[in-house]
Structures are given as structure tokens and as C-alpha cells.
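Sharing a chain and its predicted structure for anyone who wants a worked example. Both blocks are below, sequence first, C-alpha cells second.
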Amino acid sequence: MLLWTFIALVSLIGVAVLAAMVAAFITVVYVALVGVWVLFALFTLYFFRDPEPRVPAGPGLVVAPGHGKVDVIDVITEPRFMEGECRRVSIFLSVFDVHVQNAPVSGKVTYFKYTEGKFLNAMKTESAQHNENILLGIESADPAYAKVGVRLITGLIARRLVPWVEQGEVVERGERISLIQFGSRVDVYLPMSATIQVKIGDRAVGGETVLASLL
């Protein structure tokens, strides 16, 4: 009788210890999952942050449509909206940059073209030619009818373009015009007469940094 009582007692203690270990393991897993969720929630809030731009005043100014690093300044041919040679300023947006885009100039959106494509790494400048993109063409109000193009380009991770304007709408310089989710690229097309005011390697702030002057 004593032996069976002892065995039962030991069994109960073993079960209690095992239950405590399982409970501790579940608690650790739960805390870890909560921690991962909190980190993901904080990163999501950080990623989708939308600061109010301090839009500069002045005639003929072209502000950066996106937040990121200026890594290309060149001359290309854009046949659809610019209808020929134009200056290009390209901005790379990493996953840590703000991904809301702003209108570079005040004017009317007279061209809107969505093009399906690949999802190459947006760090590569050729992604502008091959990746899914939206080309917005704006006829400036200052100076009147000057053409400024904005190409919103997806990347390896960024696979969704969310435009907030349509063809025919009037926008103000610095106004929010789109969202690109995760790392991506934004190209700005300017008339050959535009004076570029940034250099490769500069950090651009959307709606604030002056890229060029049209006067």
C-alpha cells in the first residue's frame, strides 16, 4: 500500500513538473510571438509614416516627388509624354524611406499610363524600363504648360502602386499623389531647358527638396 501511494505521489509530482515546463515553454513562445507582432506593427507604422512636407515657395521650382537617394541624373528619350529628349532625375527609395509621393509641380495631370512589367531590384536603373510602372504627365502652371513627368516604379519587394490622382486632375506642388509599397524608384522627367539643382548622392525629401528650376 505504501509503495503504491509513493508511486502515485511521485507520478503526481512528475506530472506537475511536466505541466510547469510545458506552461513555461508556452509562455516563452507566446511572449516571442507577441514581441514579433509588436515589432512588425511598429515597422508597419514606421513604413507607412506620412510626414507633412514643408513645400518651398518660388517660381518654376520642381520638388522631389519621393524620399530617397538621387542616384541618376542624365538625358534620355521619353516618347510618350515628353515626346523626345528630356532630363531625368531618378530617386531610389529603400524600405526605410517614406513611400508617399508628392507632386513635383503645380499643374494638371494630362497623362496617366499604367504599364505591366517585371519586378527587378529597384536599385538597378534599368528597372525603370522593365518594371511595372505608372507614368504621370503634369502640365505645369508655373511656367504655363511646361511638361514634367513622374514615373512610379515597383521593385523587387515593392509590388503595388497606389495612385491617388487621375488624368484630368489639378494638383498643387507638394500634394500627395501616390504610394509605392516597400523599396522602389521614382523618375522625374524635365524639359531640356530645366536647371538641375541636385547632384548624385544627395538625399531628397519628398515635397521639399528642390530638384530643378524650370525658369
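Comments welcome. The longest strand covers residues 68-78.
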